[in-house]
Write a structure and sequence with these properties.
The complex is a heterodimer of chains A (about 290) and B (about 290). Chain A is mainly alpha-helical and about 290 residues long. Chain A has helices at about 1-50, 55, 70-75, 80-115, 120-130, 135-150, 155-180, 180-190, 195-205, 210-225, 225-230, 240-245, 255-275, 275-285. In chain A, helix 4 (about 80-115) runs parallel beside helix 7, helix 7 (about 155-180) packs antiparallel against helix 10 (about 210-225) and helix 10 (about 210-225) runs antiparallel to helix 13 (about 255-275). The longest helix of chain B has about 30 residues, at about 55-85. The chains are: A mainly alpha (about 290), B mainly alpha (about 290).
Chain lengths: ~290, ~290
């Protein structure tokens, strides 16, 4: 009798708990989909606009079904020579990223493995370079560029992007290299490896996730950078953001063209970063938060 | 030490030298367009700046913008992180989609929202019409432009805070939560007494990085409004850029940029002091 009543009493409460949990999950899905829509809708919208004709873009109410056209992309790559800008962007970003990573990783190794005075100032240095409004250094760089004859060449942008990325690399790689136990290196040295051999064959392979984290971040920042690029280039060394910003004229805006430019410019970095998503958080937080 | 040399030399030559040069220009009347070669005028630029109402307006606007943008996106990011911390099927894909806005080139973000906010054929007014709300002028009117650029900034940067807070949540130890469950603590109490305090270090780091970036916002606002209408969105970086490259008052512009840097520096130092950021950043060293 008692057994029966206990079972009888438990059954509805279990059912109630189940319903409550199901309702909770349903609610979570509704909220999650709403939130995702808020972030995704503008992206879908721009992607659609990029394959609409100028007339379809100006239609109201907005058209969801239309005949797609490649005209915007044709104009972008034809008249606006977006391919040149794409190459410029790729060249500048790749070289500067490489430079920053080589110099930065070397410095990070020194900071992680040897002790000397002033070590702790590195944190402040990283921050101070992040804090610097681009505005502060863009004027002197503009003047210097003019006088050195490197205005409107990729070299100055490479130098600047490498500089902006450098403290990031140093800081994040330092955290990662410290994670590698010293004993592994020492064991290799006992086996007769030199310092450099140890670095390249033991330590470096172990910090590949760190390199990926840094690479993703500084690639993203350089690829998306506009202010320096707009001030220090005019026609030959123009990068994609500059080209796209120029497509927005104050009065007559070509919506289709600028949408196409937005898509072409953003897609590479979105694909790159999403493919390395698991390294993103550590890179973004200077290695402080494990993602 | 040979390992350190390239980085240090590089940062000195490419980073430090322009700074010194910029500081020097800020004490001159350099203006290449008006043919002023840059005679030494001492503190005159800085004195002028003190009574430059436009500058203080833009600095104040930048301050309000930074506080509201970072505050709102942090709130939204925490809510989102709590939501997406549930491991339900399909959440991984949705979470990845939410990430995308922070990856989009800021210039493209500006383009996207200019089309969204277009008064005649923009998607936002269409969505409002479905909800039976009157169309809004968005960036077209000085009354709504500031709120509009805030909306864009929150859209763009909430994902940044979200992904960091989510990673922080995932990294929390399970035992305090189990203990709270045994004690029968409610969801709100668990959040305010356990989750939030344990997330503090993560939030402090992420927020600092956001504050620094928000204070320098330029690209999106340049595309959206160029500081207008009626200077309603004239952030400091936009105003400075106008002084420098529209009027070519490079001496005066340099002085203003140093004042802006000083303002950011003060905010950051106060923040670092109040939150103990540096201790946090170095505490993360491996045990």
């Amino acid at each position: 009798m008692t057994v029966y009543s206990a079972a009888h009493g438990a059954a509805p409460s279990r059912a109630a708990r189940f319903t409550r949990r199901a309702a909770g999950a349903a609610g979570a899905y509704v909220l999650a989909i709403l939130a995702t829509a808020f972030f995704a809708l503008p992206l879908v919208w721009i992607a659609l606009s990029s394959v609409k004709s100028e007339a379809d873009i100006s239609a109201y109410p907005p058209m969801w079904i239309f005949t797609p056209t490649a005209a915007n992309f044709e104009e972008l790559f034809g008249k606006l020579k977006a391919f040149d800008a794409l190459l410029n962007s790729a060249f500048v970003v790749c070289i500067s990223t490489l430079l920053a990573m080589i110099m930065g990783t070397m410095a990070a190794y020194a900071l992680a493995r040897f002790s000397f005075r002033g070590k702790e100032n590195v944190a402040l240095q990283v921050l101070s370079i992040r804090m610097m409004p681009a505005i502060v250094s863009v004027i002197p760089l503009f003047i210097i560029a003019r006088s050195l004859g490197v205005f409107d060449t990729p070299w100055l942008l490479i130098a600047i992007y490498a500089l902006n990325g450098l403290p990031f690399v140093v800081w994040v790689m330092r955290v990662f290299i410290q994670d590698v136990p010293k004993s592994i290196e020492e064991a290799a040295m006992i086996d007769g490896c030199g310092r450099y051999e140890v670095f390249f064959r033991i330590t470096l392979p172990l910090v590949v996730p760190g390199l990926a984290a840094v690479l993703v971040i500084i690639f993203m920042f350089s690829w998306n950078e506009y202010l320096f690029a707009s001030m220090l280039t005019s026609s030959h060394a123009k990068t994609l953001p500059v080209l796209a910003a120029n497509a927005i004229k104050p009065k007559a805006i070509s919506w289709g063209l600028s949408s196409a430019a937005a898509v072409v410019m953003s897609l590479p970095v979105i694909l790159l970063v999403l493919s390395a998503q698991r390294y993103l958080v550590r890179g973004l937080t200077l290695g402080a938060v494990k993602g | 030490m040979i390992l350190l040399a390239p980085a240090v030399i590089y940062m000195t030559v490419v980073g430090f030298y322009p700074l010194v040069y910029s500081a020097y220009i800020s004490f001159t009347n350099y203006n290449p367009v008006q043919g002023r070669e840059g005679a030494w005028i001492g503190l005159e630029n800085y004195v002028t700046a003190l009574s430059d109402g436009q500058f203080w307006h833009s600095l104040l606007l930048t301050g309000i913008f930074t506080v509201l943008s970072v505050g709102l996106s942090l709130l939204l990011a925490i809510l989102l992180a709590l939501l997406f911390n549930k491991q339900l099927p399909g959440f991984l894909i949705l979470r990845t989609i939410v990430l995308v806005p922070m990856l989009v080139t800021p210039i493209a973000v500006g383009i996207i929202w200019r089309t969204m906010m277009n008064a005649e054929h923009g998607l936002l007014n269409f969505l409002l019409s479905i909800l039976d709300i009157d169309p809004q002028p968005w960036i077209g009117s000085s009354a709504s432009a500031f709120a509009s650029i805030l909306l864009v900034d929150v859209w763009e940067w909430t994902p940044f805070l979200f992904i960091i807070v989510l990673a922080g949540l995932r990294g929390l130890p399970a035992s305090p939560f189990e203990a709270a469950a045994i004690d029968g603590a409610g969801a709100f109490r668990v959040f305010f007494n356990i989750t939030l305090p344990m997330l503090r270090p993560v939030i402090i780091i992420a927020t600092l990085l956001r504050i620094i970036d928000a204070a320098r916002t330029y690209d999106t606002v340049y595309i959206l409004t160029r500081g207008g209408p009626d200077f309603a969105t004239d952030l400091a970086s936009i105003y400075l850029q106008r002084v420098n490259f529209q009027f070519f008052n490079l001496g005066y512009g340099s002085a203003l940029s140093w004042l802006m840097l000083l303002a950011i520096l003060i905010v950051v130092l106060v923040y670092v002091k109040l939150t103990g950021f540096l201790r946090l950043a170095s505490e993360k060293e491996p045990a």
